[in-house]
């Protein structure tokens, strides 16, 4: 936060090297261990612990195993509904993708600030979500090309297109195919970033309202605080929905690659 | 009007896009609920399509936020 009591809502997204690693470089590129990588590692470790706790394979599942199996069953159902039988082999990928994004979104919203930690939502950076989107997109392209060879390009010309329309439809379908990784990554990153900026701005209202006497606190600080509690709940919902949408759209795109259309 | 003021005005106008997207998102869920109450049996199977529609409507609103952010910070 900036001095003079003015809150800079963008400061929370700044990336800083940790543990004196700012000098690390490979082939001229800086590979410092930043707060972004730290929270990625924390999310991955928490996810590993969560899944490992449910791997006991008891015949009558306990609470933990039930929680993990609910998620795997949910992903399995999503792939079965969108891709069909061929979708079974993507369950590990979609599950990791969904859970990683879900954990990352929720970790960023955790009130760990009261413990002195500063949660960093790495999904609020296009460099992180973009890589996840490119991963999904390259799986779609590789699977499509390997499975259907050059027939894959019939994806761009839907069945029954009149001959005169083919050049136009081809261009439209090609563009809509090529913007997929951008829209996939952009959606997650902007939704997370907008939510966090909103929370920060509202919290600055509460703080500056409280600093300017009881009257200002009553007319500005308190309503903003109540609104903020509501927005926090909304952000938890958005965190879940965005992870779900990311996984769902990856399933839909995989369906194109597996079954064409 | 100097360029800086025009940029900030443009960023403000971009907020209209966010408002319009909220109409879109509301429409998606309202129509889904309307249909789901008429035929609750078919509702669960269409939840995926609901969220694809929601994602589309939301993305276009988020783009207006991107434009505003680009105007202010870029």
From TrEMBL, chain B:
Pfam families: ATP-synt_C. GO terms for molecular function: hydrolase activity; lipid binding; proton-transporting ATP synthase activity, rotational mechanism. The chain crosses the membrane at residues 6-29, 50-73. Keywords: ATP synthesis, Cell membrane, CF(0), Hydrogen ion transport, Hydrolase, Ion transport, Lipid-binding, Membrane, Transmembrane, Transmembrane helix, Transport. Residues 9-71 form the V-ATPase proteolipid subunit C-like domain. It is found in: Cell membrane; Membrane. It is a multi-pass membrane protein. Its main location: membrane. InterPro entries: ATP_synth_F0_csu, ATP_synth_F0_csu_sf, ATPase_proteolipid_c-like_dom, F/V-ATP_Csub_sf. The record marks 58 as: Reversibly protonated during proton transport. GO terms for cellular component: plasma membrane; proton-transporting ATP synthase complex; proton-transporting two-sector ATPase complex, proton-transporting domain. Belongs to the ATPase C chain family. F(1)F(0) ATP synthase produces ATP from ADP in the presence of a proton or sodium gradient. F-type ATPases consist of two structural domains, F(1) containing the extramembraneous catalytic core and F(0) containing the membrane proton channel, linked together by a central stalk and a peripheral stalk. During catalysis, ATP synthesis in the catalytic domain of F(1) is coupled via a rotary mechanism of the central stalk subunits to proton translocation. Key component of the F(0) channel; it plays a direct role in translocation across the membrane. A homomeric c-ring of between 10-14 subunits forms the central stalk rotor element with the F(1) delta and epsilon subunits. This is ATP synthase subunit c. It comes from Novosphingobium resinovorum. The gene is atpE.
């Amino acid at each position: 936060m900036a001095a003079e009591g003015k809150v800079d809502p963008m400061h929370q997204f700044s990336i800083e090297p940790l543990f004196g690693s700012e000098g690390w470089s490979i082939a001229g590129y800086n590979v410092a261990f930043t707060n972004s990588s730290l929270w990625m590692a924390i999310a991955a470790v928490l996810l590993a612990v969560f899944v490992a706790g449910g791997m006991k394979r008891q015949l009558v599942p306990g609470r933990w195993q039930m929680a993990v199996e609910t998620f795997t069953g949910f992903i399995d159902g999503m792939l079965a509904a969108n891709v069909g039988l061929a979708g079974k082999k993507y369950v590990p990928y979609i599950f990791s993708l969904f859970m990683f994004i879900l954990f990352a979104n929720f970790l960023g919203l955790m009130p760990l600030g009261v413990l002195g930690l500063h949660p960093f939502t790495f999904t609020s950076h296009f460099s992180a979500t973009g890589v996840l989107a490119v991963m999904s997109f390259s799986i779609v392209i590789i699977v499509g090309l390997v499975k259907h060879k050059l027939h894959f390009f019939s994806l761009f010309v839907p069945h029954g297109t009149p001959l005169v329309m083919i050049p136009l439809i081809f261009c439209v379908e090609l563009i809509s195919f090529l913007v997929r990784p951008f829209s996939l990554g952009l959606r997650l990153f902007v939704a997370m970033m907008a939510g966090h900026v909103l929370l920060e701005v509202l919290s600055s209202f509460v703080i500056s309202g409280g600093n300017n006497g009881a009257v200002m606190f009553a007319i500005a600080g308190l309503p903003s605080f109540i609104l903020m509690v509501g927005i926090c709940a909304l952000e938890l919902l958005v965190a879940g929905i965005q992870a779900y949408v990311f996984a769902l759209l990856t399933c839909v795109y995989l369906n194109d690659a597996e079954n064409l259309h | 009007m100097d360029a800086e003021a025009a940029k900030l005005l443009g960023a403000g106008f971009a907020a209209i896009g966010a408002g319009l997207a909220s109409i879109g998102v509301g429409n998606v869920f309202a129509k889904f609920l309307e249909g789901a109450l008429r035929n609750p049996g078919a509702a669960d199977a269409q939840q995926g399509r609901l969220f694809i529609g929601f994602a589309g409507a939301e993305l276009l609103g988020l783009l207006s936020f991107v434009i505003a952010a680009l105007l202010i910070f870029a």
